[in-house]
Design a protein that fits this description.
67% helix; mainly alpha; 70 residues; globular; 0% strand
C-alpha cells in the first residue's frame, strides 16, 4: 500500500525568480502543485541529484551568492 502524502509542514521560503519559475514549470509538467513538487524533490533527493554535479554547482552558487543579493 502506498504511503499517503500528508503535507504537514508549512514554512516561509525565499526563492529567486529563476528558481521559482523552474519549480512551477517542473510542478506543471509533473501534474503537481508546488508543495507536492518540493516534497517529491526532497524525499527523493539522493536519486534525483548527481553528487559530484551537486557539489560543483553548490560551490558556484555560494561563490556568486553575495553578488546576487545586491
Amino acid at each position: 500500500m502506498p504511503k499517503r502524502l500528508r503535507l504537514t509542514r508549512r514554512f516561509p521560503v525565499a526563492m529567486s525568480e529563476d528558481g521559482y519559475r523552474k519549480l512551477k514549470r517542473f510542478a506543471a509538467e509533473a501534474g503537481l502543485d508546488e508543495g507536492e513538487a518540493l516534497s517529491f524533490l526532497f524525499e527523493n533527493f539522493e536519486s534525483v541529484t548527481h553528487h559530484e554535479n551537486l557539489a560543483h554547482r553548490l560551490r558556484l552558487f555560494n561563490a556568486e551568492l553575495e553578488a546576487r543579493k545586491k
